[in-house]
């Protein structure tokens, strides 16, 4: 999973046909629970979905622009536009279902 920041965020989501961005922070325990699940999913969906992480403490302007009010929040982008939002440390199956419903 690639780490994004304010300089790389827009370009990364525009270039990826489908992208999942994990909005997280170092101090967030539920974020740490979701991280290995997202690593597994990034392998399972290799070539279909790009996976990214964005630290909300280091990039508050992006978090604000994307209306992130609690973390972990994952947003799925399709052709650069947000199409789905997953809030909370959900189980792998729930995250997979959100991804699958946004695949072509």
What is the β-strand count? Answer: 5
Largest sheet: 5 strands, mixed
Distance between the termini: 22 Å
Order of helices and strands: EHEHEHEEH
* CATH architectural type: 3-Layer(aba) Sandwich
The CATH topology is given as: Glutaredoxin
Q: Indicate the structural class.
A: alpha/beta
Average of the residue pLDDT scores: 96
Radius of gyration: 12 Å
- Tell me, briefly, the overall form: globular
Tally of individual domains = 1
Poorly predicted runs are none
**Helical proportion, percent range:** 25-40%
Give the topology, please.
Blueprint: E1 2-4, H1 9-15, E2 18-24, H2 29-44, E3 50-55, H3 60-65, E4 73-78, E5 81-87, H4 92-100
Parallel strand pairs: 1-3, 2-3
Antiparallel strand pairs: 2-4, 4-5
Structure, explained:
The protein has one domain (2-100): Glutaredoxin. It has helices spanning 9-15, 29-44, 60-65, 92-100, and strands at 2-4, 18-24, 50-55, 73-78, 81-87. Strand 2, helix 2 and strand 3 form a beta-alpha-beta unit. The protein is of the alpha/beta class and 104 residues long. The chain contains four helices and five strands, in the order βαβαβαββα. It starts with a strand and ends with a helix. A five-stranded mixed β-sheet has the order 1-3-2-4-5, sandwiched between helices. The relative contact order is 0.24.
């Amino acid at each position: 999973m690639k780490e994004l920041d304010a300089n790389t965020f827009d370009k990364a989501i525009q270039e990826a046909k489908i992208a999942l961005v994990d909005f997280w922070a170092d101090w967030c325990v539920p974020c740490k629970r979701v991280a290995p699940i997202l690593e597994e999913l990034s392998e399972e969906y290799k070539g279909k979905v790009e996976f990214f992480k964005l630290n909300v403490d280091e990039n508050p302007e992006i978090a604000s622009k994307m209306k992130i009010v609690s973390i972990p929040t994952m947003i799925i982008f399709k052709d650069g536009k947000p199409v789905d939002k997953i809030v909370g440390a959900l189980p792998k199956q729930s995250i997979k279902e959100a991804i699958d419903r946004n695949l072509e």
